[in-house]
Design brief:
It is a single chain. By secondary structure, the chain is an alpha+beta fold. The chain contains five helices and five strands. It has two domains: 76 residues, no CATH class; 92 residues, Alpha-Beta Plaits (2-Layer Sandwich), CATH 3.30.70. 54% of the residues lie in helices and 16% in strands. The strands form two sheets. A three-stranded mixed sheet has the order 3-4-5, with helices on one face. The chain has a two-stranded antiparallel ribbon with strand order 1-2. A hairpin with a 3-residue loop joins strand 3 and strand 4.
Length: 178
């Protein structure tokens, strides 16, 4: 959702910049006595004077503006993913937290330290840590043992951090393709 917000803000800012530059160019051209430069604004002004609010172009423009405003409002009302995960503390005046990226790196380090894990990728979701690891082993029993060990290592790390809302941890181990 953050990318949608950024895209809408970028498009809106470009539109405002374009409108501002157009107004400045038109004012300079009018003051210089050259008439209109980019936009035939006298004809546009006359069209606007004879067009009523109930006409189709006015209704369509109003509808598009309302839909755009509603899209911006909904994008801002969507809950954002927290950047930091709060850590429990006995002190009332202490605010301690772990960044999502720091937690992902720590989990990655804990999982790759497990014997039998060759590589791992960690993805952080809102309430879940998803680990996908590769092992050079090919037997199912060995892979299951490595998965259990990696899951235990990741959960112990998350538990040791004493997060207020610890995320769930899921580890998937698959054999490395040769």
């Amino acid at each position: 959702m953050r990318n949608v917000n950024r895209l809408m803000a970028f498009v809106l800012s470009l539109a405002v910049i374009l409108a501002g530059v157009t107004v400045v160019i038109e004012v300079i051209a009018e003051r210089a006595g050259a008439g209109h430069a980019l936009l035939d604004w006298p004809a546009l002004y006359q069209w606007a004077q004879r067009t009523t609010w109930g006409a189709a172009p006015a209704r369509i423009t109003s509808g598009l503006l309302a839909v755009g405003g509603l899209a911006l409002l909904l994008a801002q009302l969507a809950p954002r993913r927290p950047r930091r995960l709060a850590v429990r503390s006995d002190e009332t005046y202490t605010d301690t937290a772990v960044s999502r990226r720091g937690l992902a790196r720590a989990v990655h380090s804990a999982v790759t330290d497990v014997d039998g894990i060759a590589a791992a990728r960690v993805k952080m979701r809102r309430r879940r840590i998803r680990v996908r690891a590769r092992t050079p082993m090919s037997e199912r029993a060995q892979i299951a043992t490595v998965r259990d060990t990696a899951t235990l290592a990741a959960r112990q790390l998350v538990d040791a951090l004493a997060l207020e809302r610890p995320p769930a941890v899921s580890v998937r181990v698959s054999p490395r393709e040769r």
